[in-house]
Every structure is written in structure tokens, then in C-alpha cells.
Amino acid sequence: MIENGNLYNRAARFLDKEITETLISQGAVRIERIISTGQCSPNNFWYDQAENEWVCVLQGEGVIEWQNGSRNILKPGDWVFVPPHEKHRVHSTTSKPPCIWLAFFWQK
What we know:
Elements: E1 19-26, E2 29-36, E3 52-59, E4 62-66, E5 71-74, E6 79-82, E7 88-93, E8 99-106
Antiparallel strand pairs: 1-2, 2-8, 3-6, 3-8, 4-5, 4-7
């Protein structure tokens, strides 16, 4: 079945909460659109995922923090690859404009 959509649709409507939408999930691959409006990871929380992640920012700005204290500031067009079990968190995101992420997840 052919599906289509627009990554920027409805982005401005969600100003009070973060939205994660699975666009595709087939086998070991998942693609998500995430709309953040100032949200960040809770203090002392670290993502520790068993899968690979490739994420880019399409709009706004997001800051990824690594367990070693370093940070990547992602602006539109910037991306980062996160290997399995590389502990990381979202340090900050912009609210105006909302930060739109596109994330690909897959198993080795």
C-alpha cells in the first residue's frame, strides 16, 4: 500500500506537549516524526536503546547531551547517528518554531 504525507503538517498545533508519530514500522525498521515545543528529557534520565538511531532536525533546534557531558546542537539539516546503548538525552528544544525531528531506528 502506498502512503504519503507531509512532515510539516500540524506542527504548529501542538504547543503544549511533545508528539511522537510513527510514520513507518516494518520489520526491524521504524521511522518517527517528533514535534517538540520546548520539552527536554527529565533530569538524570538517559536513553539507553538497544537499536541504532539516526536523527535529524527539520525545523527549530534541538540539543542532544551525551553521558560524557558533551553536546550536539542540531539545527535544520543537522543529523547525528546514535549507536546502540550510547546513553544520551534531549537537553533542550525550541518552542518557536517547534523542533521537528525525523528519527530512523533499526536493529543490527
